């Protein structure tokens, strides 16, 4: 497979900038980054973009490196990452005037890419590459189509594009898709009605099947409204939209590892871990950060729960959640920022200890496991009030599938697994 361009991702810098530059010099494709620049003069350290002629179309490609504060350059490295708000405006304006189709290769997370799409309607496709995300079905944000395939070459992403002069997106077979989704919605409404007739209204919030159907119904309603608006807008504009077909092609999982490739992968993983270890060492020698002092966090750590919930703690200590961080240590990956978020207690719904992922490298030991609060929510307020309303009794499915993705845990089933890890009930005094 030939590549025209690859964006510099933050993990590509794990072995150091000079190592990557040496690799790029020998590569047969272009490494791109619009925001990895010289600290002294803001000169790009890699080409920011390129233009390829594809048939009759001029296609512009921009590279963007993830900017989340987790990358630390050495004192002797003349490099800095600048935010996309500063890096993109001039490049996008220049290429938009010269190209028929503009593609952004972005190492940023989804919400950042959505913000980019809102800010730059001249970007038509954003191909995302965030390690913690798997396959992402193309989704339209403003005038940009955002898509991603799973990491480590486990899937091939195949997209066929019929690009029109209108430079606006439409869906292939949108009318048929709308009809299909309406039929699916009718089926879900019928299943929900049967549960509603069988269950008391006050029991519905605790019915996992009903809640899953409710979430599916809300998603379908959103998709139906989007399709209806899309078809209406196209009819009003009289323009022929550009369309696409997308497929994810899974590669065989039972093929044996090629020894040479396996050795390279293992060496790279150890390099990533060593880079994280160096960051952790630097953090340890700097002034203590407020967010790393347990008493100032919304998370109390599992020992804060154990004082009142001894039977539950004893049960939890026997589960794989309690030793999640230890499994990383045994594999020498406890400083790998791709792995850490799913092996520590630092996030619950939209609550995070910090938006800087590198903070996970210096968590208090009480949070170095998948603890109670990852499932039930931060416990600081609950420990003070002992009010059950301040804590979630049963974790919702989206909390679990943040880490138990099909790629990482093929056998995960919410209804079965939630019962398997359920703590014994509390005995009221």
For this entry, give a set of tags.
Purple Acid Phosphatase, chain A, domain 2, two-stranded parallel sheet, alpha/beta, six-stranded mixed β-sheet, globular, 3 domains
Structural class: alpha/beta
Number of separate strands = 14
Question: How many structural domains are formed by the residues?
Answer: 3
| Order of helix and strand elements from N to C terminus | EHEEEEEHEHEEEEHHEHHHHEEHHHH
CATH architecture of the largest domain, please?
Answer: 4-Layer Sandwich
Mean pLDDT level: 85
Main β-sheet, spatial strand arrangement: 4-5-7-8-10-9
Shape: globular
Write structural notes for this entry:
The mean pLDDT is 85. The protein has three domains: 5-168, Purple Acid Phosphatase, chain A, domain 2 (4-Layer Sandwich), CATH 3.60.21; 174-237; 259-420, no CATH class. The protein contains 13 helices and 14 strands. 36% of the residues lie in helices and 15% in strands. It has a six-stranded mixed beta sheet with strand order 4-5-7-8-10-9. The chain has a two-stranded parallel sheet with strand order 1-2. The longest helix has 30 residues, at 208-237. The radius of gyration is 24 Å and the shape is globular. By secondary structure, the protein is of the alpha/beta class.
């Amino acid at each position: 497979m030939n590549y025209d361009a690859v964006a510099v991702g933050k993990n590509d810098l794990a072995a150091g900038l000079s190592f990557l530059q040496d690799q790029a010099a020998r590569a047969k494709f272009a490494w791109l980054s619009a925001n990895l620049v010289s600290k002294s003069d803001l000169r790009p350290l890699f080409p920011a973009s390129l233009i390829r002629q594809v048939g009759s179309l001029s296609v512009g490609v921009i590279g963007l490196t993830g900017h989340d504060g987790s990358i630390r350059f050495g004192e002797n490295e003349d490099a800095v990452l600048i935010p996309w708000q500063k890096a993109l405006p001039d490049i996008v304006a220049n290429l938009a005037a010269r190209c028929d189709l503009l593609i952004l290769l972005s190492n940023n997370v989804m919400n950042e890419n959505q913000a980019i799409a809102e800010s730059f309607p001249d970007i038509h496709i954003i191909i995302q590459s965030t390690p913690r995300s798997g396959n992402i079905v193309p989704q339209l944000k403003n005038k940009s189509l955002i898509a991603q395939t799973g990491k480590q070459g486990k899937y091939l992403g195949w997209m066929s594009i019929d690009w029109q002069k209108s430079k606006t997106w439409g869906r292939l077979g949108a009318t048929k898709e709308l009809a299909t989704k309406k039929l699916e919605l009718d089926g879900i409404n019928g299943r929900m009605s049967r549960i509603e007739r069988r269950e008391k209204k006050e029991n519905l919030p605790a019915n996992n099947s009903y809640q899953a159907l409710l979430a599916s119904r809300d998603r379908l309603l959103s998709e139906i409204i989007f399709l209806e608006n899309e078809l209406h807008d196209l009819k009003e504009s009289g323009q022929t939209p550009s369309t696409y077909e997308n497929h994810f092609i899974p590669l065989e999982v039972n093929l044996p590892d090629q020894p040479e490739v396996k050795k390279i992968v293992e060496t790279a993983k150890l390099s990533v871990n060593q880079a994280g270890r160096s960051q952790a060492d630097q953090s340890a020698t700097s002034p203590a950060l407020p967010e790393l002092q347990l008493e100032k966090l919304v998370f109390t750590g599992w020992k804060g729960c154990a004082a009142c919930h001894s039977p539950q703690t004893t049960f939890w200590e026997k589960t794989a959640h309690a030793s999640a961080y230890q499994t990383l240590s045994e594999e020498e990956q406890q400083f790998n920022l791709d792995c850490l978020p799913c092996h520590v207690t630092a996030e619950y719904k939209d609550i995070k200890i910090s938006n800087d992922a590198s903070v996970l490298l210096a968590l208090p030991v009480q949070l170095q496991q998948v603890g109670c609060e990852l499932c039930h929510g931060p416990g600081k307020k609950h420990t003070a009030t002992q009010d059950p309303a301040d804590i979630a009794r049963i974790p919702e499915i989206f909390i679990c599938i943040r880490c138990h993705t099909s790629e990482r845990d093929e056998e995960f089933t919410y209804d079965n697994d939630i019962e398997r890890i359920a703590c014994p009930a509390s005995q009221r005094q």
